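Dear support,

We are seeing what looks like truncated structure output for some complexes. This example has two components. We would appreciate it if you could run it in full and send us the complete token output so we can diff it against ours.
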Amino acid sequence: MMVLLLVLPLVGALLMLLWPKIAPLLTLLTATICSLAALQLLLQVSEQGSQQILLAGWPSGLAISLEANSLSCLLILLTTVLQLLVALYAFATYRRDKLGTGFWPLSSLLQLGLTSLWLSRDLFNLYVCLELLGLVAVALVSLSGDKAIKPALNYLLLSLFGSLCYLLGVAMLYGAYGVLDISALALQWQTNILSTAALLLMTLGLMLKAALWPLHGWLPAAHGAAPAPVSALLSALVVKGPLFILCLLWLQLASAPQAVAIAPLFTGCGLAALLLGGVSALRTPFAKNMVAYSTVAQLGYAMLALGLLLRFNQPLFAAALWLFVLAHALAKAACFLAIGEITATLGGKRLNTLKGASQTMPLAMFAFAVAGGSLIGLPPSGGFLAKWALLQGLWLQGDQLLWLLAIVLATLLSAAYVFRVVVLAFDRADPVAPDFAPRILPQWLALLPALAVWAMALYSEPLLRLLKQEGL
Amino acid sequence: MSPFWQQYLPLAIILSSLLPGLIIFTLKETQVKLRISLNLFGVGVKLLLVLLMWQAVKAGQQFYFSLPFLPGADLVLQGDALSLLFVVLSSVLWLATTIYAIGYLEHSPLRSRFFGYFSLCVSATVGLALAGNLVTFLLFYELLTLATFPLVVHRGTAQSLAAGRKYLAYTLGGGVILMLGVALLHSLVQSPLFTPGGYVTAVVSGNEGLLKLAFALMIAGLGVKAALLPLHGWLPQAMVAPAPVSALLHAVAVVKAGAFGIIRLVYDVFGVESMHALQLAQPLMLLAAATILYGSWRALSQQDIKRRLAYSTISQVSYITLGVAMLGPLAAVGGLVHLVHQGVMKITLFFCAGNFAETLGIHKVRQLNGVGRRMPVTAMAFTLGALGMIGIPPTAGFISKWYLGLGAAEVEQNWLILVFALSGLLNAAYFLPLVYRMWFLPQSMPWPQEQQLSNRFETHWMLLTPAVFTAVLLLLMGLFASTELSPLSWAELIVEREFRHD
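Here is the complete output from our reference environment:
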């Protein structure tokens, strides 16, 4: 099953290069099959526990090993389903939006990179996935044409720099211990300057690639410039990859004193991301940049949860962390697709374009508002579940009033930027041309993930059970 | 009735307005008849279901429906006597408001959107009334905020957008603070069902500080919607909304959601015993008394009719809080029955104010001179509502104030009787001039913007009937207070069940 999930997108991408004409159909086909396979894998793992395979029959230590635990399976399912959804959206709009033919094979490669990243437990394999992800993401951003060249180049350079930092850290560890498999490395782990330096280097690289504050500068430009389906994929999935590796490093590799020592850095950065990202989202005049800054802010929740998890070792924070990742992925995909559809139909990049959108494009606006509800953390959405877990953890820890206040502030900030758009949409619309007929299908596709994130709340118990199976 | 039905009845009551609402969103502007029939169908079904439930609850049955949600806190809908008080109020007034809104918005744009959100708003209110634990309550509390916002900004003017922003800033802020408090309480005792007598008694010793903090946070969160003193700023501004929306905000949905939450919190979460042990009643009482006097005082100087009514709401809703905070059975009866009485009286006043504005273009107090001759029926209904607000027998307002006064004497808080007297005087001082102008002063200027809405009546029949209906209702509730059907006897039933638990 795992091999299928990796081989299919790869073969699909190659075939797409050979027959560009049927590329959209091939993408849809592979994404559908992969979604079913991912679901099957998730069911298997949740019944039988995590599975491990060694590729091509090599002995352990030499072979590329893949491990599927329930968290990885959940993330794979998320990836494939969002891939399918975005592919459908792109299929419905690519003629209008003049999306380059490069999109189809690249998005398949993106899926490959992410799937293998969720499955790898080896520092070098993770590096390869990370590099693949970065390059594909840059190529996808540049699909927008000339105006995207500068942000894409910027993204490329920073991404390469991040990868190099990570690679340097990996090399240091390999030199010292001679193994790269995370579980094997954890057994011989020593707390010394070398290992700390390696960890810090890798963290620097990963934070840069995950656009964690204060290394987020490249993200709004890149995600804002990319075509709507690409922004949805980048914001929902790609930035979560490096975050996943970061969690692996600090939760499974680092020793307890190292973890406790780094915790204030993560919580501090998370807090700053929440507040400053929120303020930037509130101030930017461009619609897509607003959504992109919201990603920066929402990643702050994940960082905050990671920092608190490292400090207090309270399982509720782990649940909060992954719930944030899942809820944000769905909500952000919905936001980008909705905003992309509205701006493409009404024409214009500024927030003012959205004036009166609740009358001209009610469905897309509804999708944005529903997804925004999850970003704010209104019940009963996935965002609320995550926030609830975070609040419970903080109250149980006691004496964490500062963090509680910060969360209140961050929630209000997110409410402010979401409702800035919603209020604008309730303004009276400018008159539209008599033949104005927005397309219905893309709007529904934007609404789907938004509804899914609210449905998450109803499946909270199985979700929490799945997430609790993991030590991660 | 089979158990299957009993389980799904609370859900069906919510769905009876939610589903028509969702269908209405998809309708075209021109499908007027279909929209109206859907609306009325929803109201009819809801009233029928509520009637079924009312009879069963009276006979001592309980309704219970749950879905798994958070660990330790399911989504629970529960039909008990207290929730039914609020459900009946909102369903009956929804009927009146729907008819009113159909008449009021005739020929105006974006009606499908309006009625869609209107139904959502009522669904959220009913859900809030039926919520069986704090987490479910929180959920519907937030949904109510989201559903009312589009109604407040419905006109899409700069002024209403500004009011909408302010409304959101207050209510979302309140929602987050409420969430914080609920999460704190959940971390201490989980979120079990609302139980008469409360469920925190077991953990009071050792957790005094945290429980007090949780109470303060939740009161602050609920106080935003209940318009308690420092948190009332959104209410007068939200007056720019269309009249049916103001009626809904003031009488049924939003402010009542806050007041109802406070009742739940005091009686069914903390309980009388813990309230005494934690000494939480006194501050709440002071706050409510201050709000009563402040609201009345500010109402005096308002020259806009709707703004004057808004400040009056701030003051009157705090009677409910005050009745609850006194922690005595008689005061509780007064507070609970005022939840209903204030709703009916205030909605009458808003219907009438809307009629004046729609028919004659009257918005200011001084333009009211001589309206009694031009629109006698509406003016009569307004007068009844105003007399009720002051508390003159035999209107409904008298009954609630009587019980509140008795309750204050019972718990030996005699200074509160002074507050009631003073506030009654202030009420008279800001309502009687209006009544006087309507009936006894001659018309001093031409009507600002007169419209001929009907040939036979003084205004459109759809605007007139709801006002008459609620005015008659408030009179009947006062006259027949001692019968079995009155809100008073229902409030007594609730209080008996609440205070009997030990």
